[in-house]
Amino acid sequence: PAEQEIPLNYGADRLGKRYDADMQKFRDNRLGAFIHWGLYAIPGGEWNGKVYPGAAEWLKSWAKVPSGEWLELMKQWNPTKFDARKWAKMAKEMGVRYVKITTKHHEGFCLWPSKYTENTVANTPYKKDLLGEMVKAYNDEGIDVHFYFSVMDWSHPDWRYDVKTPEDSAAFSRFLTFTDNQLKELATLYPTVKDFWFDGTWDASIKKNGWWTSHVERMLKEMLPGVTINSRLRADDYGKRHFDSNGHLMGDYESGYERRLPDPVKDLKVTRWDWEACMTVPENQWGYHKDWSLSYVKTPVEVLERIVHAVSMGGNMVVNFGPQADGDFRSEEKELAKSIGAWMKKNGQCIYGCDYAGWEKQPWGYYTRKGSDVYMVVFNCPYSKHLTVKTPKGTQVVKAALLNRKSVKVVETARNEYNVDMPAQEPGEPFVIKLQIKEAA
Ligand code: JFZ
Fold it and tell me: Interhelix angle for 210-223 vs 166-189, to 10°?
């Protein structure tokens, strides 16, 4: 409190982490899936015979397709293979505890029958409320649903990138009312939604209207007590985003780590707040793109490593899926979900409900921690067959055992340093050793 802070009307609503039950659930879930699904799934990265290598959900922009022409795709929107229960089973099998769904991406097409625009699933051959079907099916499997919502709307005539003239002002104020209406509609129609993840909020128009981002956070929290909101929504009085002008996180969790992660040694500051990272499986494809050979596709172990990396630093990880226009998933994604699920079934203990352990990073992998259980999640095996563990002062390792299996030898090599033996038989995949520890009172 010694430091002088700038007075703000639209800065952080609260200081420090939230510890209520809803936030705790958000945090304990740790692993989520992202679903990017919209009209862009139909062209799948190709327009007029040309394949664009950029993100498929941005195709309208890459190929400079006017809105009217783009929205013609609605006539082809008929995902005949879509079965919400199958999607929910797939998520359940993967071990995700929540799913973030694009209710509306930048293109402006709504997966729910919004009464505030014509650009919705209701006006396609499919007609039915896709979002409603998904929410119900995921919830029936015990999976939380989070809503992705792009504020930027390429199909709304009143959207502005900046506000410079009185005409812009009038249009943008109509746009903000339209957006409020859509958000209230979502909160009313789908009251089990647990989180809103805002996107498309980086333009000058939003930065000049920081008040509105604060208003949205309050409005949703009033309508849906316990709901969580990402920092990406927010801008303060001075247009400062994510963190306000006094350096305080806005919203409930930081959402800036996208397709990258904090450095496990240099960026430990992230352990002071809640955060959630999201990742694509190819280099940068969120929506369905027909050609995955255009960029590197991560292997299941590489995806797992990112999940563990995030949890080891007190964050959540959301793995993206871009379903096909027919409502099915590409085989690569089905297989990925299966192999992540198989690993989570055996080793999920080191993910769900786990947090930053506070121990010095070692080259074999990552630590996670739940209460007094410390997990070593091993991704790199040394020739020495010994995994080095350095404990904080006053902490002793008493015993080590493979998760649900045999114990492994622990030798104290120096004060607060141990060699934990590799399992006799190489597990052939990332494995987990659970440590029994003793801490000085
Ligand atoms: C946005 C979208 O444009 C993209 O299509 C996708 O939906 C993704 C999840 O979000 O892209 C972003 C947003 C923020 C950053 C980078 C890409 N960022 O903060 O670095």
Answer: 20
3, part of any domain: no
Same domain, yes or no: 272 and 411:
no
Task: Return the residue matching tokens 């996670």.
Answer: 368
Q: Which of 153, 258, 285 to mutate to test the pocket of ligand 1 (most atoms within 8 A of CB)?
A: 258
Q: Which domain holds residue 395?
A: 365-439
- Please give, one letter per residue, the 3-state secondary structure of 188-201: HHCCCCCEEEEECC
Alpha helix locations (H) across 45-157?
Answer: 59-62, 67-71, 84-94, 130-140
Beta partners for residue 195, in sequence order: 146, 228
Local structure of residue 36 (DSSP, 8 states) = -
Residue 279 forms part of a structural domain: yes
List the one residue out of 35, 38, 41 whose CA is nearest residue 288: 41
Whether 238 contacts 211, CB under 8 Å: no
Strand order across the 315-321 sheet: 228-229, 195-199, 144-150, 98-104, 31-35, 315-321, 275-279
First to last CA, the chain: 31
DSSP SS3 for 31: strand
Q: Are residues 156 and 49 in the same domain?
A: yes
Q: How far is the CA of 119 from the centre of ligand 1 (A)?
A: 22
Instruction: Determine which helix (DSSP H) or strand (DSSP E) holds 278, and give its type and residue range.
Output: strand 275-279
Q: Which residues pair with 369 in a beta bridge?
A: 355, 374
Contacts of 72 (CB under 8 A, 6+ apart): none
What is the per-residue pLDDT across 245-288, written as a single tens digit (0 to 9) for each? Answer: 999 999 999 998 888 999 999 999 999 999 999 999 999 999 99
Whole-angstrom distance, CA of residue 219 vs CA of residue 214: 9
Rounded to 5 degrees, φ, ψ at 410 are: -125, 125
Write down how long the chain is. Answer: 441
Is the pTM here over 0.80, yes or no?
Answer: yes
Predicted pLDDT at 215: 98
What's the whole-number mean pLDDT along residues 99-128?
Answer: 98
Ligand 1 pocket mutation pick from 52, 198, 199 by most atoms within 8 angstroms of CB: 199
Beta carbons of 174 and 183 less than 8 angstroms apart: no
Q: How many A from CA of 283 to the centre of ligand 1?
A: 13
Neighbouring residues of 195: CB distance < 8 A, sequence distance ≥ 6: 26, 98, 100, 144, 146, 147, 227, 228, 229, 230
Structure tokens at 33: 């899936």
User: What is the domain-level CATH number for residue 171?
Assistant: 3.20.20.80
pLDDT tens for residues 118-171?
999 999 999 999 999 999 999 999 999 999 999 999 999 999 999 999 999 999
- The CA distance from 396 to 82, in Å, is 53
As a whole number of angstroms, the distance between CA 180 and CA 198 comes to 13
